[in-house]
């Protein structure tokens, strides 16, 4: 590290407190515990290789979140100098240099007691394994030489060629103990996302991280409104790591996480950059939307997780420009589903084109088709039912994923788009289930109304769901079925009231029509017949599947 003038000495009220290193002409990195006792106006930074620069006043610009304990994470502080310094900042090693760490000596320049001009210490990382996900353990190269004592905290840990791979954060503190810890660069970037821009992602040219951070600066400069969480999901894809708990506070934090925490970051960074470019410059020509699919869907899929009766899997996606944009997938207890869906839907709205007509679609297992999703509150702060604020529909999850039924439903919708305004095919409580499938097929039913919920007449619903009937409606509560009939039949009354509102209406408009009925019912919930209406609406053109791969995965 001959001539590495970026090594810094940190002083507090005239007393040497530790080390640091210059990362930009005005920025020095050190440990939070080094400057914990500093008061305004007492912090100065000097550079031992350039004593002519003197001591420069500095302030703590960023704190990594360290709480004061010896093993608390985030022991990082970013110091802002009062002016630029004419020194070349430290260079960071690329990400893929890290596997070689156990083979190489690391040099640290610190300021132990009695050596205000500094001392050098050589240590080695025996393993790249993180201690508590935060530190790499350092051990002395030999049993003699300068130990990492107090005064080395905040020093850069550098390779023999001078490139930095981390920062000394914990020292032994006892004479003769030749073990210490460092924060590797990726952990420093986790606590200070701006550092990611200074670190090359890979050896050689063509670093995609540079492009990402140029775009991030543009987005910050223009005040771009976007969802960092969704950009992360777009970048890592369906099989990438899940969204971290709580998501990302900023676009820069999301970019840093993709750079440091995702396996194979080059491809993910490229996707991140492509999506951010689209948001900054606007998308190119959109793929033509299928006829009749003017809705902009947000899809919520709820399914059994296989981890126990109380556990379900919830996946939220948005559709835009003919593409599915995953928002996130989690497994959680049933009791937490509603709150998670509220948050997921809110994030998904950021992916819809401005002014698009949203459609909230819930793909549910057959036994949950009667779930009162239209009654769920919009958010923890807004008790308005989802079905009153937005068009809300459900669909059978197995049917939603059946290529055969999707194909048949597509043909039905083409017939409806050609001018069909179907009559309501009534399935009353006393309608025999035997032969219903045949009748639905012969009449090419596009709209079927059931007088009772699925749990009451499961045979009727199986016939309707296994046939390509695009729209099914029923009351979530009411008639107990033919076996326990009372007069007058509430199911018959429901169908009588429903028919005038749906017959003569193109099925593509029914989600909005049912939303209006739900709004009316909310004004008089105890009296209105549409209070518990459930709408199963199934237009596969609104939910395009990704194109199949042209290459066999076995090749």
Which key terms come to mind for this protein?
single chain, 555 residues, alpha+beta, six-stranded antiparallel β-barrel, 25% helix, 23% strand
Number of helices: 13
- The percent range for helix content is 10-25%
% residues in beta strands = 15-25%
* DSSP summary, beta strand count: 21
- Cα end-to-end separation: 49 Å
**Shape call:** elongated
Could you report the average pLDDT, rounded to the nearest whole number?
84
Largest sheet: 6 strands, antiparallel, barrel
| Low-pLDDT sequence parts | 284-292, 547-555
Gyration radius, to the nearest Å?
Answer: 31 Å
Give me the secondary-structure category.
alpha+beta
Strand order of the largest sheet: 1-2-3-6-5-4
Q: TL;DR of this structure?
A:
The protein has 555 residues and is an alpha+beta fold. The chain is built from 13 helices and 21 strands. Helix 2 (208-222) runs parallel beside helix 5.
């Amino acid at each position: 590290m001959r001539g590495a003038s970026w090594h810094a000495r940190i002083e507090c009220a005239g007393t040497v407190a530790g080390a640091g290193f210059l990362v930009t002409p005005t920025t020095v990195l050190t440990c939070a515990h080094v400057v914990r006792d500093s008061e305004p106006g007492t912090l100065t930074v000097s550079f031992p290789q350039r004593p002519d620069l003197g001591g420069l006043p500095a302030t703590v610009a960023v704190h990594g979140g360290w709480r004061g304990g010896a093993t608390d994470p985030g022991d990082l502080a970013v110091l802002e100098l009062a002016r630029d310094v004419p020194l070349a900042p430290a260079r960071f090693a690329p990400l893929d240099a890290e596997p070689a760490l156990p083979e190489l000596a690391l040099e640290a320049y610190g300021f132990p007691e009695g050596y205000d001009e500094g001392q050098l210490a050589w240590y080695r990382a025996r393993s790249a394994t993180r201690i508590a996900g935060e530190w790499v353990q350092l051990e002395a190269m030999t049993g003699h030489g300068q130990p990492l004592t107090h005064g080395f905290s905040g020093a850069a840990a550098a390779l023999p060629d001078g490139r930095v791979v981390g920062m000394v954060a914990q020292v032994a503190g006892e004479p003769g103990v030749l073990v210490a810890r460092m924060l590797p660069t990726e952990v420093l970037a986790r606590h200070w996302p701006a550092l990611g821009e200074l670190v090359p992602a890979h050896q050689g040219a063509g670093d995609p991280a540079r492009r990402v951070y140029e775009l991030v600066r543009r987005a910050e400069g223009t005040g771009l409104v976007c969802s960092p969480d969704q950009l992360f999901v777009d970048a890592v894809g369906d099989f990438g790591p899940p969204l971290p708990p709580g998501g990302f506070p900023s676009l820069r934090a999301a970019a840093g996480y993709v750079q440091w925490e995702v396996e194979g970051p080059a491809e993910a960074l490229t996707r991140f950059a492509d999506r951010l470019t689209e948001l900054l410059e606007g998308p190119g020509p959109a793929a033509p939307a299928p006829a009749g699919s003017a809705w902009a869907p947000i899809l919520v899929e709820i399914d059994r997780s296989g981890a126990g009766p109380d556990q379900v899997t919830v996946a939220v996606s948005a559709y835009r420009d003919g593409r599915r944009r995953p928002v996130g997938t989690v497994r959680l207890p049933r009791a937490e589903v509603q709150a998670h869906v509220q948050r997921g839907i809110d994030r998904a709205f950021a992916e819809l084109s401005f002014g698009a007509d949203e459609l909230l679609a819930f793909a549910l297992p057959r036994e949950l088709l009667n779930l009162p999703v239209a009654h769920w509150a919009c958010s923890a702060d807004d008790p308005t039912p989802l079905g009153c604020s937005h068009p809300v529909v459900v669909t059978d999850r197995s049917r939603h994923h059946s290529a055969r039924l999707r194909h048949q439903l597509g043909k039905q919708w083409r017939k409806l788009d050609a001018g069909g305004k179907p009559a309501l095919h009534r399935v009353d409580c006393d309608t025999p289930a035997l032969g219903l499938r045949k009748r639905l097929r012969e009449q090419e039913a596009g709209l079927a109304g059931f007088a009772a919920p699925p749990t009451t007449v499961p045979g009727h619903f199986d016939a309707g769901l296994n046939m390509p009937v695009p729209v099914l409606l029923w009351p979530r509560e009411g008639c107990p079925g033919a076996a326990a009939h009372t007069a007058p039949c509430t199911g018959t009354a429901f169908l009588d009231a429903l028919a005038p509102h749906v017959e003569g209406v193109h099925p593509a408009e029914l989600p909005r029509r049912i939303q209006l009925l739900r709004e009316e019912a909310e004004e008089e919930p105890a009296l209105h017949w549409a209070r518990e209406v459930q709408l199963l609406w199934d237009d596969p053109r609104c939910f395009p599947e990704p194109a199949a791969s042209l290459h066999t995965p076995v090749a």
